[in-house]
């Protein structure tokens, strides 16, 4: 009797489970339309596609003659596919690696591409997440899957440490110089890197997710202003000539690699997610740019 | 004749043989089935939760990490409360069932994608897990002969681990089938969790005494007071086991850190990182029963101490490094198989039956608190000195702790 009752209840539960799964699998996929990456602002929209295209990306960035689309691939273990596209949406390169999408950048010319993924374990991982950053030279096909192999100079001294972690690369116009965040010993630093020499040296502490301005003179970054997880970051802009920082008018915590709309304005996502913009000189006030959107980038 | 004799022994608190003559009681198999099914349900959620929060909802990973750590710490008190409540009302099955129900229901909370609902759901899941653990382990001891406790816990933990290994596979199969529909994972997880609860209600007998309806004449109307449960801390034999478990918890690096160090030192491709815990779990699964039986035969102290020696070996294998990830995961799996259920088998018989759940809760809380502090200390050491010195320090601490535990437990069996 008991066995029968449990079996019967089990059948009902199985029917619910299967029914819901089939229903979820049958949800209509977003409509696909051919297209190109038009000049202007692109964001990831609520249905997971990049505005103005049919691309399904978790993180997207367009610059020069190329774009990169990071898409999470559900599976065990979780993987990410980075697809480098031409402006006509033809696929130029495709790289697959472990982790889940976090940041993506293309150099101003479109030649250099970089991405950062989170590598998460599972319930057993006490410290949660760590990051992996890769760089691809689309002209030569040279691929660095994990840039932790770079020679790092901390305050001028060669630094070896097993806990070194890089994220958020941004490229200069020469396709060789770049900026990124490095974390080691519990602190974060802004580094200036050299692709050809494969070195990176720290410029200052406490600067994450750098984004180089189109004119190459300033870096937008998020600075940690509070310990812990409640509103820890504020957007700042660093003048590379003087190394002076300017806090921006956005007072909410921004956990994003900001994108320059032009030499005076920055765009970034806030939880919601929504994309906002704010003047890059500390003046003015934040303005909503796109609701239900994330991953902004400005295609020239 | 046999039945009567067996019944009499059960009433005196020491059933030599489980009803029916099997050496592992039906109740243990039933509890193992409940744990297996429940672990499929809960591990499918934990496997996809970080992805869901970060990719699905755009939460920062930092927020998730803190959320998770906070709740893990808070369950220590809940565990004590659950254990004591089960003793007090002599309703082990009811208290455990409440915990299972709470965890199953929490899956539906994940469907509401607001941060407040998510926090509540995650908290409810952890509270449910905290509530049920001690009454469940107490039921295992109350339905098993004392000299077969190691085997009984071995069987239970092997079934439990099987579920934990299947969970992520089910979850990622579902994500693949539905092209990334996290809600389907949560709904299926709820259904599986509900099935586990039904199995508990239908097939798990309550503790002998109040739960089964027959009260022995001498038993008081209600169970032990909170004071008498807490007084166990001072009980001579039990105090030593509690002290040793807490001390060893305090010098054991948490799994997550070990996997991070392992990945880094042995340069394992990040794509395979999530597979590392499965390696340990597979070893645990295979060795839980043999090591439990060994503990029954030669006493539980030796396997418990040797298990921690295996953990020390795992640190050494990472540091040297020798043997590659396989050796490290093998030693880590042995550590779990020789210490997890074995600790319950070591401590259980030292607690009077009517205070069993509360006593086991104390033991688990002591160990968990030790581990929580250990992870804080190890994190700080890693930050201050770097990874390798931190691991060397952890190995030294474990070696010293192990020596101390061997002395503290010199009379234990």
UniProtKB/TrEMBL annotation, chain A:
Keywords carried by this UniProt record: Signal
Region named Disordered: 281-300
Keyword Signal: yes
Signal sequence bounds: 1-24
Domain of life: Bacteria
Record-linked Pfam families: PD40 (PF07676)
Keyword Signal: yes
Identification of the protein by name: TolB-like translocation protein signal peptide
Organism: Actinokineospora fastidiosa
From TrEMBL, chain B:
PROSITE patterns documented for this protein: MFS, SUGAR_TRANSPORT_1
Gene3D superfamilies (UniProt xref): MFS general substrate transporter like domains (1.20.1250.20)
Major facilitator superfamily (MFS) profile domain location: 27-413
Highest rank taxon of the organism: Bacteria
Record's bilayer topology term: Multi-pass membrane protein
Pfam families with a match to the protein in the record: MFS_1
PANTHER family linked: C-METHYLTRANSFERASE, MAJOR FACILITATOR SUPERFAMILY TRANSPORTER
Name under which the protein is recorded: MFS transporter
